[in-house]
Amino acid sequence: MNTNNGIIGIEPISRFMDEFFNRSISDIVGTDLMHDSPSVNIIEKENSYELEVAAPGLEKTDFNIFIEKDHLTISAKKEENKEESQDVDFKRREYNFYSFTRKFRLPDSVDRTSLEAEYKKGILKVVVLKTPEAKEKGPRTIEIK
Prior knowledge:
By secondary structure, the chain is of the alpha+beta class. It has 2 domains: 8-34, no CATH class; 38-81 and 96-137, Immunoglobulin-like, CATH 2.60.40.790. It is built from 4 helices and 7 strands. It has helices spanning 10-21, 25-29, 31-34, 132-137; strands at residues 40-44, 48-54, 63-68, 71-80, 96-105, 110-120, 123-130. It has a 4-stranded antiparallel sheet. Strands 3-4-5 form a 3-stranded antiparallel sheet, with no helix packed on it. The radius of gyration is 25 Å and the shape is elongated.
């Protein structure tokens, strides 16, 4: 029989508050949000394709970019491991680790030997040049029948 007439006691509220504030943000919103791949813009220009990867908080040494067969792979890995003094008795200690991998299928019209990359202000910019044949073809208008 419930003797509190529908009133929630202090202990359940206190326990809820303790559990809520002692969790990490990934526990609250889910780990998928914390480990999603970054957004990528792909821009086609006359002589190249440019990929802009939004990856703030990383260093250029955190990235790995390579071409294998018909795929361009961009990945990054960053691990923060802050050292604390040895006389601290931790009740909870968390490390920050972030990684992602994005693969892009390359069209036949790109020169797989020409790849340039620059990381500035949180944006990784990768430029893949088009082959001379692709540059000559240029845009075409298709007649609708």
